[in-house]
Design a protein that fits this description.
It is built from nine helices and two strands. By secondary structure, it is mostly helical. The protein has a two-stranded antiparallel ribbon with strand order 1-2. The longest helix has 22 residues.
Length: 219
């Protein structure tokens, strides 16, 4: 229980700021489950049942050693672990490194170039985005620039180009967390349908190609 509490972080988050010669402190309550009212958890579980079932299949495969797809599901569980580590991380710089690592191990990137190209494949398969498409309708950042930013920030932090303790990554941590969560969740759900196809390949490239072709509109 002590380890769980440490990983969750402190219940109160305090921020100390300095402006000139004066200091100020702000406090926010981060106690787990604080905003959840009666009946909320049951409602959430009901609405997210497909996700819970899909994730459960991946975890059960790993726990029992009886895999549907040994390569993809092992990679998925490794990615989920790195995502958890990122969410529990207090330093933004290390959190970014862990978030990008989650994507890298999910797609078995092997190197920086492979990481960038396969994250682009995720954007193409899951979101229908080409490298030059804007990442969102109200954004000025292309999919390629978004991927480059994720890979670049991790590389600069881990190779000492940026300070671990005093860096300010260009990417927004919250939006990057949301992206990685969405990718890992979507991967688990797509694997449910992929497992029911004829002779599915246990390779991430084949899986992403299948997802992309499935989501393409019929001419």
């Amino acid at each position: 229980m002590t380890r769980l509490d440490v990983r969750r972080g402190e219940a109160q988050h305090q921020t100390l700021s300095r402006s000139g010669d004066s200091y100020s402190v702000s406090v926010s309550n981060r106690d787990a489950g604080l905003p959840i009212g009666p009946g909320t958890m049951a409602d959430v579980l009901q609405k997210t049942a497909p996700v819970i079932e899909a994730v459960g299949k991946c975890v059960t495969s790993f726990a029992t050693g009886q895999f549907r797809f040994p390569n993809i599901e092992r990679a998925w569980c490794d990615a989920a672990y790195w995502l958890h580590e990122a969410l529990a991380e207090t330093l933004d710089s290390i959190a970014f490194a862990k978030l990008e690592t989650a994507l890298e191990v999910l797609v078995c990137a092997e190197n920086t170039a492979g990481s960038g190209s396969r994250i682009e494949s995720i954007l193409a398969a899951f979101y229908g985005l080409s490298p030059n498409d804007m990442i969102t309708s109200n954004s000025s950042t292309t999919a390629k620039q978004f991927v480059k930013g994720i890979v670049r920030d991790r590389s600069r932090i881990l190779h000492g180009t940026w300070s671990t303790l005093n860096s300010h990554p260009a990417m927004n941590r919250r939006s990057t967390e949301e992206f990685v969560i969405a990718v890992i969740r979507r991967t688990a759900m797509e694997l449910v349908a992929y497992a029911n196809t004829a002779a599915p390949s246990d390779q991430i490239e084949a899986f992403l190609m299948w997802v992309k072709s499935k989501n393409q509109p019929t001419p």
